[in-house]
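Hey, weird one. I pasted the Membrane protein insertase YidC sequence into the form twice and got a warning about non-standard characters only the second time. First submission, copied straight from the form history:
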Amino acid sequence: MPSSWSLLNPLAWLESAVSGVLVTAHALLGALGLDPASGGAWVGAVVVLVVVVRLALLPLVLRQVRASHRLARIAPQLRALQGRYSRPARPGGRQQLTRDPAELARWRAEQKALHAEAGASPLSLLPVLLQVPVMIALARVLDGAARGHAVGLLSPLLAVQAGAATVLGAPLSGSLVGGGGAAGAVLAVGLVVVVAVATWATTHLQLTRGTAPEALEGPVGQAQRMTVWLVPLVMAATSAAVPLGLLLYWASSAVWSLGQGLALLRWLPTPGTPAAAARERRLAERVSTP
């Protein structure tokens, strides 16, 4: 039972939910024949947590995909609107939005009206942001297990067991810079490579196949191209002190994101993108095939 102070603490409830999924998955894997004290059982529990979280977020992902489709359909209108409120371009330069406060206010109001009329929303990062509290809760659960402390629904016995569980000789509560030893360093580097490669591939595919060519022009397009390399580098740079169990979550989630991105590009591509054109060609070929 949560204490009186934790009843008002959202993180305490999230820790209970995360630890509850881990405990349930661990028990099921033990019933299937895995040694409950082995690292494999706890690794499997973390992977199950990833699957549960990503499946729970899937309706929101699909909703955001449909919103991005509506946004893509009004993209020509948005570009035309920006052109009306832009200053004439200098020789060799690009058009820039007017600096007049009144005109900027009208531009924002008309832009907002277009979004509302189309039912479009630019909040495409919301599914990613909603995973942050889950990862914080998982890090706290792993930290508690490393200290042998019960956290959420993780009992003292399971906490000690999880804290002692190892993968390739490295404890799940260890990290690249502490507590993992040489085996932990090797495992951490391997997981970071998986995270970086899967994240790069997901971002690259979205940029080259899931983005309209017009959206890649100008400063915004340059910023998007930078994210292809920047995001994996940030993930790698922040992984040194991350527990191996959390790195395992990152790696599993990154692989899920890659598979999910490939599926969306194939079956639900954004209109006006190379992926949408490829889908139209596939459908045309099926119709023309006797």
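That's the output from the first submission. The warning seems to come from a hidden character in my clipboard, not from the data itself. The radius of gyration is 24 Å.
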